[in-house]
Design a protein that fits this description.
206 residues, alpha/beta, Rossmann fold, five-stranded parallel beta sheet
Length: 206
Amino acid sequence: METSTRYSRESSTLALFDFDGTITHKDTLIHFIRFTKGRSRLFWGMLRMLPVLFLNRLGIISNAKAKEKLMSHFFRNMNYAEFKRFGERFCKEKLPSILRPSAIEKINWHQSKLHRVVLVSASIQEWISPWAEQFGIEWITTEMEVKDNRLTGRFSTPNCNGREKVNRIKQYLNIDQYTLIYAYGDTRGDKAMLEIANKPLFRHFD
């Protein structure tokens, strides 16, 4: 990914932020589906997905597989350009209302110190990157597979959660060059990322 970053390339401090529940106070997946499909289609779609969600709850289907099936149900065969436009509109019209002011304040603080700030999220790139790019923040996300300019309903990367967060971080940058690493998260899916930090912060920012 490329974005206009707001950090010193000589900085020895890295700040890793989970997105859903950490920077936002609500899960963005359901919000994005409702934004693109409307309340009625969200309701009936979730009703049809109940067996998958139930099997996920029992541990028979993984979170990653359940999420992929959910995305496939709502977005398979959707034109990618349209999907991307919805992501841009979501970031502009809906995302600001569910951001945590304390999280934005902390991001601003890191940027004022010229620390490198990276979002590491299981959410989908298209409804995170337009917002992140606007503020010079880098991102690592789950990505959708696109063929012939249409969504297949599958992921082109592993779901960026749990241990996969650390895998993706290490693929993207060299953590050994940082003497101080902050990590912010709010669920067990962030635990592995918090463990690589000198300053792990779970559900708080100080």
